[in-house]
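Please check our next protein.
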Amino acid sequence: MAPVTSLTDLVNQRLTDALVSALPETDGADPLLRRSDRADFQANGILALAKKAKANPRELATKVVGDIVTGDVIKDVEVSGPGFLNVTVADRAITETLAARAADDRLGVPLKENPGVTVIDYAQPNVAKEMHVGHLRSAVIGDALRHMLDFTGERTIGRHHIGDWGTQFGMLIQYLIENPGELAPPSEVDGAEAMSNLNRVYKASRAVFDADDDFKERARKRVVALQSGDEETLKLWQQFVDESKVYFYSVFEKLDMEIRDEEIVGESAYNDGMPETARLLEEMGVAVRSEGALVVFFDDIRGKDDQPVPLIVQKADGGFGYAASDLTAIRNRVGELDATTLLYVVDVRQSLHFKMVFETARRAGWLNENVTAHNMGYGTVLGADGKPFKTREGETVKLEDLLDEAVQRAAEVVREKAQDLTEEEIQERAAQVGIGAVKYADLSTSPSRDYKFDLDQMVSLNGDTSVYLQYAYARIQSILRKAGEAKPVAHPELELVAAERALGLHLDAFGTTVFEAAAEYAPHKVAAYLYQLASLYTAFYDKCPVLKADTEEQKENRLFLCDLTARTLHQGMALLGIRTPERL
């Protein structure tokens, strides 16, 4: 199917043709078209063109208007101020363009011309530790970006770089060897039980580690055994990695997110490659020895007393840290997975670390002009009081508890509004509304900003919330059900009232919005578009009777606007990883 040409592009082309006709030497001039409150569009490009051509901008604007053919696309153009053009499009053009959009399964969202392979590093919990509120944003933002990139034709590969390696695992394994039977096999427990078992063992092993020097020494030797691949040690390590995975899946299932087992590639996966990474960096002269450690220095990164802050690839005792595993991961993702883009959805506090890692990889040639690396640093989740989100006891809030409470609050809202839903249906909708509310609150904020986690606000039916969008969608489905024999049909011959025009013009912007938001890694722009769509639909619903329209054609045309709005809401919310229930 041929791509859908948006109204913006149609108008842009007409204006460009008129500009070239008025000023032949301006071939390729940009009219600088944008949506306007005074008309449908405003073109601001004539001021710059007039300056370049040493012409009077208002006179040039008047000349351009004379060369614009009005009728099928543009209804009217008027010169405003010193040379702006206010453009009103024809009602017929709005309806015909929307009909083309409705006939397209993709609703007119274009595909990338040269899609690549993006490896997205997101949702990175730690083995043997419960997930907390700090794990929420990476998962939610990464999942939405993945949906958006996939939809525009990019091939995405997920990487969940879980914390499954390091000193604490020597302690845990040694404790389990000395206390066999403390962990039940993963097949015998559910996710939450598996994690509480691991937590219990972790605390018990930590207590022995802190109190018994002999045990501490045995635990340190166990770390060496783990890193050197000792069979008994690896078997136990694998058991609590498996236990943790059972738990991770249960949390991600609550979040309504698909996590693929083959994409969980933890720090341990890069263990064998880290010595080679260090050797290559040293041989190339990218890393140097300093006080026994292998480090990389940067001219522009300095700390206290203007001293350089290095990236430590290998510690003086021979151990490897995050830099070595991250650099080894880059080698794998570019060399083995053929990535053209590396996208990291990681706390903004890691920004300096990734700046140093990316620069090191560039110096080594592992990142080149064909590969882009981008750190989507995200802000902190704050409580309603604006401080970092904690329990009353000052503990980190468990993610599962948070999600359960969101669903519980949503159930109260759904139950209050539900008219013909069974209790089972209320609970099913509550999960979709509650989890959707948590995701939307996160995604409607620019990722780099902190945001307040306020459940009362999140599940509100009023304001910029997913519940407001879900109810708009459910309301449209109710209208379409009540329409009976009447079907949505576009009628380009009909004149449109102001609320229909405003809704139609916004629906037309869906393709461009999604395409640009995916390119900019900006899910909040999709959320903002959807909120405005629901608001414009509410205004349309209030002012334009649908089932009691004046004529059958008007009823069909308004049902068409309803149907396209619902499909756009459904697709847009799906890109954010949020469900749209048919009834609420």
User: Anything to note?
Assistant: The chain has a mean pLDDT of 91. The chain is about 50% helix and 10% strand. The two ends are 35 Å apart (CA to CA).
